[in-house]
TrEMBL record:
<dbReference type="GO" id="GO:0016787">
    <property type="term" value="F:hydrolase activity"/>
</dbReference>
<keyword id="KW-0378">Hydrolase</keyword>
<dbReference type="InterPro" id="IPR036866">
    <property type="entry name" value="RibonucZ/Hydroxyglut_hydro"/>
</dbReference>
<dbReference type="InterPro" id="IPR001279">
    <property type="entry name" value="Metallo-B-lactamas"/>
</dbReference>
<dbReference type="InterPro" id="IPR052533">
    <property type="entry name" value="WalJ/YycJ-like"/>
</dbReference>
<comment type="function">
    <text>Counteracts the endogenous Pycsar antiviral defense system. Phosphodiesterase that enables metal-dependent hydrolysis of host cyclic nucleotide Pycsar defense signals such as cCMP and cUMP.</text>
</comment>
<feature type="domain" description="Metallo-beta-lactamase">
    <location>
        <begin position="13"/>
        <end position="191"/>
    </location>
</feature>
<protein>
    <submittedName>
        <fullName>Metallo-hydrolase YycJ</fullName>
        <ecNumber>3.-.-.-</ecNumber>
    </submittedName>
</protein>
<dbReference type="Pfam" id="PF12706">
    <property type="entry name" value="Lactamase_B_2"/>
</dbReference>
Length: 269
């Protein structure tokens, strides 16, 4: 069957993604209430009983709000590195030892024919990671909550068929926004969030013709808009000499309040 996925919710209010192939369905983060996650799963004809485990990127509340409740309700294993476990265990409640799985940064784990590989990213968390998913020749990459794209991250996210990449904020909207300066400085820093322009700059360096779609994710509701993000990312790419036609490469939307349609990597066009 190959890889398919849906971004159930993405943004500063909560993040949940489901990746599956014919054998396995995995959830990346659980940053909404269990009730809301169940509602979003139902919109894509899933229930928590269809999920085989939850992969955690880092411990911030918009990524783990419903983690403990989902794990207990559906008896799901949680996969996270040692430092992230240390940061989340007090906040997610009691989890049986058999569902506390350590998956260190840089390691891979096979779930049948679906291989999952984590990679370290830069963010103000204990040990944040992104994830790559492989099935045969297919590759899906999910990379959000990263202050900048390092050489190692660039290598990790390159040559993906589909990429879910953070485009958190418009720099000028953020600078003029209502947040206190310390918060703005954190977001703009190397341990913060990726701006629209930074996302475009990264894409201009990694696109080789294999990546057919990039979903712009984790948009700030206060300091970004989807149309602005797509325009800014495209302009940043073109400023660096990276031009493309929609038939060759597409920038796709994500939403904080509804899931994206199922996207099958085997049906790239």
């Amino acid at each position: 069957m190959g890889i398919s996925f849906t971004v159930l919710s993405s943004g500063s209010t909560g993040n949940v993604t489901v990746v599956r192939n014919g054998e396995t369905a995995l959830m990346i983060d659980a940053g909404l209430s269990a009730k809301r996650i169940d509602e979003l799963l139902a919109m894509r004809e899933l229930t928590g009983n269809d999920i085989d485990g939850i992969l955690v990127t880092h411990e911030h509340s918009d990524h783990i709000k419903g983690l403990g409740a989902m794990a207990r309700k559906y008896d799901l294993p949680i996969y996270a590195n040692t430092n992230t476990w240390g940061a989340i265990e007090k906040g997610i409640g009691k989890i049986p030892d058999y569902n506390r799985i350590i998956m260190e940064s840089g390691q891979h784990r096979d779930f049948g024919s679906l291989r999952v590989e984590s990679f370290a990213i830069s963010h103000d968390a204990a040990e944040p990671v992104g994830y790559n998913f492989y099935d045969g020749k297919e590759k899906l990459c999910v990379a959000t909550d990263l202050g900048y794209v390092s050489d190692k991250v660039r290598d990790a996210i390159s040559e993906a068929d589909v990429l879910v990449l953070e485009a958190n904020h418009d720099i000028e909207m953020l600078r003029m926004g209502r947040y206190p300066w310390n918060t703005k400085r954190r977001i703009l820093g190397d341990m913060g969030h990726l701006s629209n322009e930074a996302a475009g700059a990264a894409l201009s360096e990694i696109l080789t013709g294999r990546t057919k779609r990039t979903y712009l994710a984790h948009l700030s509701r206060d300091h970004n808009m989807m149309d602005l993000a797509k325009m800014s990312v495209r302009c940043a790419m073109e400023d660096r000499g990276c031009f493309f036609k929609d038939s060759e490469f597409k920038l796709c939307d994500t939403y904080y309040d509804q899931p994206t349609p199922w996207d099958k990597l085997s049906q790239l066009s």
